[in-house]
Amino acid sequence: MDSNTSSEKRATLQPRRAAGRQRVAELLAAASGLMAERGYEATTMAEIAARAGAKIGSLYRFFPDKEAVAEALLQQHIAVLHEEYEALAKRAADLSPEELADVLIDLMAELYPRIRSLPALMEARTDRTEIRDRSRGQALAGISAALRVCAPGLEERAAGDIAAVVLNNMKVMLGMTLKDAPTTPGAPDELRRMNRLYLSSRLAPCRGTKAGIS
């Protein structure tokens, strides 16, 4: 998928009415499911319309081509992640380290149904490395912010290191959920326990303190 949009290409239509917004949401949901299952290249506009229960003309009315659909999906997924991490940072002040650990370890798996085509979309982009780095940086910044809200005495550098460990744990949990990573029936609970113990040991000494741990 070319990441550059031609200046001659018709712009994506932004519906103003609720019915139009609902139709676009249905079309994007259908596209997300197909691209997650089959990949960007194998998905066709006709299949997207069919899965959404819409006429092909309705799809083309809002999106001039498949690239426009993918771009809208990508921006939607990025916005979802941004909103979730912002909301998490606001909640973190009222969470114990153990509670925050539980929220974080399951966050990626819980968000997956809403962003499931993100890997396929990034893989199809010519600028996928840049987008992947930006997405990873957004996740690390969001987790780090939540850690520091939960434990105000935690130093910024330490928060970044801990966030990297937690993000990897979140990815492992997602892999277990999707059966893409080695797992057993009890393994997810063991991972939650490990994450809880880790964050408790790192954050508890910094709650209500001014000096962080190194």
From TrEMBL:
It comes from Acetobacter musti. Keywords: DNA-binding, Transcription, Transcription regulation. Residues 21-81 form the HTH tetR-type domain. This is TetR family transcriptional regulator. It comes from the Bacteria. Residues 44-63 bind DNA. InterPro entries: Homeodomain-like_sf, HTH-type_TetR-like_transc_reg, HTH_TetR. The keyword DNA-binding applies.
